[in-house]
Every structure is written in C-alpha cells, then in structure tokens.
Design goal:
- This protein has 470 residues and is of the alpha+beta class.
- The protein is 66% helix and 9% strand.
- It is built from 12 helices and 4 strands, in the order αααααββαααααββαα.
- The protein has a 4-stranded antiparallel beta sheet.
- The longest helix has 67 residues.
- 30% of the residues are buried.
- The N terminus and C terminus are likely disordered.
Length: 470
C-alpha cells in the first residue's frame, strides 16, 4: 500500500507541476506599460541602470517639457522602482502558489539488544494538492492586483510631476514679472524721494510710492521662495541629485489650447478606466473565490496521508518487512469552520461596500474635475482675450497722454500698478488651468486624489491702491 501511495503521490505531484506558473521575462511590466501608456523601466541590473542614467542625462541636456520631466521621473524615481520590486515579489507569490506541496520523506532507525527497526515514510498534504487549482487562481488575481497597483503608482507619480512642473514654471514666470516690477518701483520710489525734497509732492504721495516698492520687494521674496520650493519638489519627484539639479525650465507656461476638451461621457469613462476601481473589482473577485474555497474546506483544514514502509531485523528470526499508511486530519468537534466562513463572508461584504462607495465617489470626482477644468479654462482665456488686451490699450493711451502732459507721472504709475495686478492674475489663472488639466486626467485614469490647487497659487499679496494712488 505504501508503495502504491508513494507512486500515486508522485503522479499527482507531476500533474500539478504540469499546470504550474513560471517567472515571466519582464516581471509583469508589459501590463503596467499598457495600462499607463507610458515608457516604464524596471531597473534590475547594472547594465539597465547605466542605460537609464544615459537616457536621463540626454533628457536633462535640453530644456524640460512636461512630458520629458515625466519620462525622467518614471525612469529615475527610486520610490517607483521600489513599487516595481513589490510587483516582482507578487510574482514570486504567484509562482509559489502554483506549485504543488513538496512531499516529505522521513527515515528512522531504532536498535537495541541485537534487534533493529528501520522505518521510512513519504508524507503528502492531500488537501493542499486538491485545492492547488483554486489557490493558484486566487494568486493569479492577486498578481493582477499587484500589476494594477504598480500602474496606479506610475500614474500617481506622472500626475505629481505634471503638477510640480506647472508650479515650478509658473513660479519662474512670477519671479520674472515681479523682478521687473521691483526695478520700476525702486526707480519710482527714488524719484518720489527727490521730488519730496524739492516740495513737488506731499508726504502722502511720497509714502504711497515707497510702500509700493516695499510691498513689491516682499512679494518678490515670497515668489522666489515658492519657485525654489516648487523646483525642489520637481527635482525630488524626478529622483535628481548632485549634477542633475541644474536642469533648465522654460520661462513661462505654454499657451492655452484653442478650445477645451469636450467630455460628455466623463463619468462612464472614469468608471471604466479608473485603475483603483479595477483593483477593487479584482479584490472582490479574489475574495469571492476565497469564500468559496473556505466554504468547501470548512470541515477539513488538515489532511496528511503518509505511506509507511518498516523493516525489522530480529536476531532470533529472519528479518521481515511491514507496510501501511497513516492519515492525519482535524476533527471538527469545537470549530466546525463557522468562524472562518463568517470571517470570509464579512470580508467579502466589506470589500463590496467599499467598491460601491468608491464607484460613487469616482463619478462625483470626475464631474467636479471637469467643471473645474472648464471654469479654469474660461477664466484663463478671459484674461488672455479680454483683460490683458484692454490693459495694453490703457497703458498705451496713458503713455500718450503723459507725453502730451494731459496726465502726471502719478496717474501713469497708478495704471502700472493695476496692470501688474492683471498680469499676476493672468499667470495665476493659467497655472490653475494646467493644474486642473492634470487633475482631469487623474480623475479619469486614476493616480491619486486630484489636488485642490487652492493653497498652491503663485499669487502673493498684491492689489492696486483702492483710491487710485493719487
């Protein structure tokens, strides 16, 4: 019997091996690339690291665009590489769960008073072997979840880089504008001091020009600090250090698109494409399979079958051999599996409710992201089409009237302050639009909760004098 059992156990093991998984050549990264539509790289060798470094150096040699900054981050960010390591670990779990349990062989020898006994056993976990297809199927779903989590981390990093890039470039634009404004305000303040010494202007007008210069100086310092912090965050996300920190950014954000995107089915698109929803759906599927397996094995959680071969040597007689088998299983006297079944059922219900809640939130996030996108486009476009052209006309007319001595220098300076406020508002509106555009992509594809942007504006305290300045 033991001989037949051992042979049968080997046959079952061989059949299990015929359906086991093997490690994929890319570690599941092809799926991540397809889901994110990005060029991703999992660096596992020194040659791969050198190739990535060469690509990063080549991209840093020219002025960065949004997409080149994203590409550098996806290649060079070590936190993302750690996420890909987790994906590789998930694949090892998949391969492990697809392998049948190893049989255990034991041999023992007992001797005394000239007699000896040798016993050999081959022990196999029959329950683990019988449930192998189910466990392998569940592990396959878990690996698919790990791929989706890696894709989600990739999208999250790309979205963070886009937002950081927008803030860094908008910060540079604001610094350049305020630098010019400070130079003008400084000249005006010096002129006001000289005119005050001659008695040409009173103390009130002189103080107005001096406080404008002081406020512009403070605003410039604030803008520089914000631009520096935004640049540092972009460098962190791109994984740059030492020599890579001198990367170049454009002076200003690109122009607005000619027309905004029309997304009439954005809610359906978000529900269909959001990776976090796909992860939740797979979790629910895996839990359902796990619940079925738990119910199927609720009464038996341990079933070991051992084939025994024993040879006894007795000095008073010829040696003889004994064969048999040993079965071990749990007796469900106190625990009939109700606890495990209840735990599995409640875990499934919890995941179902979380998935439903997430689906409701995704639809709301998509609607809100699109509304913010459209409104920010309208505001930024209004600045570009209406406010700035009108400010340009006013500036030109005021200069003509100043040349013909119809207005004095203070009226011209007051208009310059108001124009500065409009230019700053235009920069801030354009920044908010590009941030909203990034948040819209996030709302449809996933990658984290869209950023509010309300506390990251490049606008610092600035306004034209309420009384006209003169």
């Amino acid at each position: 019997m033991a001989h037949h059992f051992a042979r049968g156990l080997l046959v079952l093991t061989a059949l299990g091996l015929s359906g086991c998984m093997a490690f994929s050549p890319d570690g599941g990264m092809a799926t991540v690339s397809d889901l994110t539509s990005q060029d991703v790289a999992f660096v596992r060798t020194a040659e791969g690291a050198e190739a990535v470094n060469a690509t990063v150096r080549r991209l840093l040699a020219r002025t960065l665009t949004t997409e080149t900054a994203v590409q550098i981050a996806l290649l060079n960010n070590k936190g993302l590489q750690a996420t890909y390591n987790e994906l590789a670990l998930a694949e090892t779990e998949l391969v492990e769960q697809s392998l049948p349990p190893n049989p255990v062989f034991s041999i023992s020898r007992i001797a005394g008073n000239g007699a000896s006994e040798i016993e050999r056993q081959v022990v196999g976990d029959i329950l683990a072997l019988a449930t192998l297809p189910f466990r392998s199927d569940i592990a396959r779903d878990r690996f698919r979840q790990a791929q989706l989590r890696a894709a989600l981390a990739t999208l999250r990093l790309a979205a963070d880089v886009r937002r950081a890039y927008v803030r860094a470039v908008a910060g540079n634009d604001m610094v350049a504008l305020l630098t010019d404004a400070k130079a003008t305000a400084e000249s005006t303040a010096q002129l006001a001091v000289k005119l005050g010494e001659t008695g040409s202007i009173n103390k009130l007008d002189q103080a107005r020009e001096q406080v404008f210069y002081a406020e512009t100086t403070a605003d410039l310092a604030t803008a520089r600090q914000a631009a520096t912090s935004a640049r540092e965050r972009l460098a962190r996300l791109m994984g740059l250090w030492d020599g890579g920190l001198d990367f170049r950014l454009p002076d200003q954000l690109p122009p607005l698109p000619r027309r905004p995107q029309a997304l009439p089915s954005i809610e359906a698109d978000a529900v269909a494409h959001r990776i976090d929803l796909q992860i939740a759906r797979l979790e629910l599927t895996a839990l359902a399979k796990s619940l079925n397996l738990t119910e199927a094995t609720r009464f038996v959680t341990l079933l070991d079958l051992a084939g025994i071969s024993r040879r006894t040597q007795d000095p008073e007689g010829p040696p003889f051999r004994e064969r048999g088998f040993d079965v071990q299983f749990q007796i469900p006297i106190f625990d009939g599996g109700e606890v495990r079944v209840r735990q599995a059922a409640e875990t499934y219900n919890l995941a179902f409710n979380r998935l439903t809640e997430r689906a409701v939130n995704v639809r709301s996030e998509a609607r809100d992201a699109y509304r913010v996108y459209r409104s920010s486009y309208d505001i930024a476009s209004h600045y570009q089409r209406e406010i700035l052209p009108l400010r340009k006309i006013i500036t030109e007319e005021m200069q003509l009237r100043f040349s013909s001595m119809q207005v004095d220098i203070f009226a011209l300076l007051t208009e310059a302050r108001q124009r500065l406020a409009s230019l700053r508002g235009a920069i801030d509106a354009k920044q908010k639009f590009f941030l909203a555009q990034s948040d819209l992509q996030t709302a449809v594809n996933g990658g984290g909760t869209p950023g509010s942007g309300g506390d990251t504006s490049t606008t610092v305290a600035a306004a034209a004098p309420a009384d006209g300045g003169h």
